[in-house]
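Continuing the batch. This is chain 6 of the set; chains 1 through 5 are on the previous pages. Same settings as before, nothing changed between runs. Recording input and output for traceability.
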Amino acid sequence: MKVKTVTRYKNPGYPAKEEILADPQLLKRIPSRWEKNAYVMTALGLTVSLSACGASAEGAQGASDRVAPVFIHGGGSGAYGCVSVVSPYFLSEEEAFEIIRAEAESYGGLILTQEVAPELKNVKLPVTHIYPEPEKTKEKTVKGSLQTDGWDPKKKIAIEFVSKSDVGNWKETEEGVYATVESYAIQDTAVRLQKSLEKTSPEEIVGIFYDPYDYGDLIDEYDKIQKKYEGREGNYWAAMSEEQNDMARAASEENLKAQVRDFIDWLKGQGVI
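Output for chain 6:
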C-alpha cells in the first residue's frame, strides 16, 4: 500500500464548526431520525457545550447554563506608577454601560436598563491585589453581595461590567505591602468572578464583561502616535496624550462590543433569545 498526501477534502454534509458558531440555531434543527439515537444526541449535547465555550475568536473562560463564559477580547490589565510608559485609559462604569447597552440592543434586541437591576446576594467575590506581591499568594474570596450593572427585566438577563474601580474595591484590606505602583488585573478578576458565580444558581442569566484595556495590546499604536509628534516645537505632550487616549478608548470600545456580541451568540446557542 502506498501512502499519498491528501490534497483536497470533500465538503461535509453537516454544518462545520465555523457555520455553527456563526448560527448556533443550526444545532436546534435536528432530523427526527437523530432524536431516537442516544449516541447522536449525546454527541450533539457535547457539541453544543463546546460551541458555547468557543464562541469567541480569542477564547472564553468558564461556562454554565446560568452564568455565561467570560469572552476574551483585550488583555484587561493596566498599571499606574513608575512602570507606566503611558497612563492607562480605563472606561468608566457609565461609558461601559452605554457601550454594552447599545450593542446588546442593536445586535441581540436586548433592552438593558439600570433601574432595579438585581442584586446577587450571598455570593463569593474575588479578593484582589493592586500592589506587587512578594510571592504568589493563594486566591481568596469573600462572601458578599453583587449589585449588577444592568438587566433586561423581560428576558431576566443581568449584566456585570468588571471595571478598574471594582478591582480596587475588592482589594485585600491588609495587603501587607505598599508601593508606588498599582496594578489592576481586570480580566483575571472577571474570570474569577465568573467561576465563583457559576457555582451558584442565580434566578437571572448573568453575563460578565470586563474593561479590555491593555498597554501591550496597543504599544505599536502608541509608538506611531509618539513618532508623529516627535520633533515638533513647543509643548506637544498634551495633544499627543489626548490622541493616545482617543485611540485607546476606541480600541476598548471595539473589544467590549466584541464581548457583547459573543454573549449574544451564547444566549442564542442556549435558546435564551
